[in-house]
Amino acid sequence: MNLLGRVSVFPSIPARIKRLDELAHNLWWSWTPSAQAVFRSLDHALWERIYHNPVKLLCEIAQDRLDQAAQDPAFLERFDAVVAAFDAYMGDQDTWYRRTFPAHRDRTIAYFSAEFGLHEALPIYSGGLGILSGDHCKSASDLGLPFVGIGLLYNQGYFRQRLSADGRQEALYEKLNFHELPITPAKSETGEDVLIGVELPGRRVYAQVWRVAVGRVNLYLLDTDIDRNAPEDRRFSAQLYGGDHDMRISQEIILGIGGVRALRELGINPWMWHMNEGHSAFLGLERCRELVQGAGLTFYEALEAVAANAVFTTHTPVPAGNDAFSFEMMEKYFRPYWGQLKIARDEFLGIARQDQMGGPALFSMTVLALRMARRANGVSKLHGEVSRRIWKDLWPGVPESEVPIGSITNGIHTDTWLAPEMAKLLDAYAGSWRDHLEATETWDKVENVPDDAYWAVRRELKRKMIDEVRDRLRAMRLRHGESTSRVREVDHLLDPDALTIGFARRFATYKRATLLFRDLERVKAILNQAGRPVQVIFAGKAHPADEPGKRFIQAIYDLAQQPGLEGRVAIVEDYDMNLARYLVQGVDVWLNNPRRPLEASGTSGEKAALNGVLNFSVLDGWWVEGYSGQNGWSIGEEREYRSTDEQDDADSQSLYQTLEDVIVPLYYDRDGDGIPHHWIRHSKEAIRTLAPAYSTRRMVQDYSRELYVPAIEHGEKLAADGYDLARQLSEWKGMVRLNWHHIHLEAKGPREQRLTVGDELELEARVRLGGLDPADFIVEICQGREENGELRKFEVVPMKRSKRLGDGVYSYEGAIRPKTGGSYSYGVRVRPAHPDLADEHEVGLVRWA
């Protein structure tokens, strides 16, 4: 049979409930339990079978069931209440962003990311980066930001994971039917489907643009699987993080360059551009090309204008984890492009040049993003420090602590990840807690919840989680053809009364999924202690090309069948947002043991803490900020080790000892009523201290205050009067760089001196500027504590120009005034200074005396 295609035929929705289709096509339902309940009530079994996708539900549901629902008073009451809530949400004009930044209420913020994790019904995410992007969009909607997202629409999504009978990961790809997803074709201002094109070697590749409504926010996704493209080009939007370097660079050209062109076709002209990781960094080049070609700017003038209103967020704590391409590949894909920028080949490649130890230089997407944005951040305080250390060579002479990469710690979207049962508990005892999710006083009210009511909900969430895990294990054993008795065993697998630990995340090797089993006999004793059983549930995918990660999965699968571990250890296949909700809401302890400091942030533990699950984690990423000693436990120490083996030994010993001496005894410490009151105290403390600090509501507010609005205002300033200030700033930087070699700095001061607190040490400096204007430079004293020959945390004191000594030489004076005792070091430096720099070190030039 020769099949030409397929169509999706939807029943006719009765007029009374016609807005079900509108609700289904706005992801607002994904974080609104009452909306999900309306769809579920139409056909509970179908809702579960089609993976909680309301659009597919409305396709497959029987016509008579819709007709019946339209006549059912109980259903209509629920439906009307949801529609009213949706209309109130969408129509609210009194949002946080509008109140806080009324002058910027309509100035669009564009957010580019390679993946968006919004719901399991739209599987275009692989892990933490995508979930973070999805939660960012949801909170941007809640807060009323004028926000649009840009990404790729992967028609095969990310792979579905199956474990074979011997525990090997198998990757399954299923082509998505876009007509059965909560997406619609994007329309231009004239009502036409939006189609854009980008240039790849020897041809032009086209992408259709689709729209996803995420509350008040629109997300636009690019799809190359269209008839106009050659078969090999249609696959660029097939799979997430698949293929070779040619596939990757093509996808990133489509995302970055194509994303800019899509926004233009949609009539959207953003005032601020956010690159979430380096995958989209080519957008900066495209924006420069527009200004060079359309506004007559030089490339360097365009760069000033483009970088002024751009933000870059890095998520990767190791240089090797950042995308980089060979110069040969860049020539292959961009040979015509640098001519459009009116710069030479070497200038183009130099924009993002990253030198390699013992290898050829590469074109780094992270370096490009850092060059194309005046504001950059890591995703936790520790990650900010690590990022400054990794990329400090881009600002030679600038102390590591002053490298212009800040940090905003990741959070989670509260309504998406908080169990409805916990929300109802808060409704009953915490008043209007939803109004100020980021306020600590909001969550202090968790103390009002009686322990018996609190524990009953925690037990219910664990029961639901165990039921879901059993269902998945039963399905896996049936698929493997196991015996009837083995399948029936699943009905009693996992004990609802046992202390349950969860470990679920991407199976990258640095996350050390097998660390718990470093001493098998000891862990067996912990899990099987009489009267105090412990069980551990694992879940997670390894990238299809990550063979060591896949071996970790197989090792845990094998361990789960060993005597002493069977029945106490389980690994569940196909980890996704649906399974994640069950686990972060249902386990007692969330285990996280990455190799410090390689966890940029991590957010799964934040989701667990929101539900009263206690974190047991290495002091890395967000946990080093969140841990108080009362809201969970730490593994290991905040220190470096000579070898990974020593680190694994130390961390595993810490893990075992804390389980044996603290966690297990505390969980089983019960009063006469059978309730673990001391455990509950810590559980409530986790919610109270972590829920407000690690919400995306707080995170997006931080982005708005610290990055978005300053970038909008800086970009507006540089664009005024035909980009006059951008031209001036580019000319000034060019002048400074051209003449920097003329500058000479000398300073007089003692190598060693004894002072008393309150004393003053006067210093003198002389600068030869070689005919340059002293107004373009600043001379400073840096004083602080020295660590390993470098000033880490220090105070900067400007020196005052005292007189001109002739021949372009100027004298400066200043003083050190120590406020506390101790050993101080000091240095004197000169650097370029201009009132319109976004960061004092963006020029990247410093000379020390």
Q: Compute the average pLDDT.
A: 95
Distance between the termini: 81 Å
- Which CATH-level-2 architecture of the largest domain? 3-Layer(aba) Sandwich
Q: Give the amount of beta strand, in percent.
A: 15-25%
Structural class: alpha/beta
Largest sheet: 10 strands, mixed
How many domains? The number is: 4
Give a verbal description of the structure.
- With 849 residues, the protein is α/β, with parallel strands linked by helices.
- The chain folds into four domains: 15-91, no CATH class; 109-163 and 170-410 and 707-718, 3-Layer(aba) Sandwich (Rossmann fold), CATH 3.40.50.2000; 439-694, Rossmann fold (3-Layer(aba) Sandwich), CATH 3.40.50; 743-848, Immunoglobulin-like (Sandwich), CATH 2.60.40.
- It contains 30 helices and 29 strands.
- The strands form six sheets. Strands 1, 2, 5, 6, 7, 8, 9, 10, 14 and 15 form a ten-stranded mixed beta sheet that branches.
- A hairpin with a 2-residue loop joins strand 6 and strand 7 (203-214).
- It is globular.
- The model has no long low-confidence stretch (mean pLDDT 95).
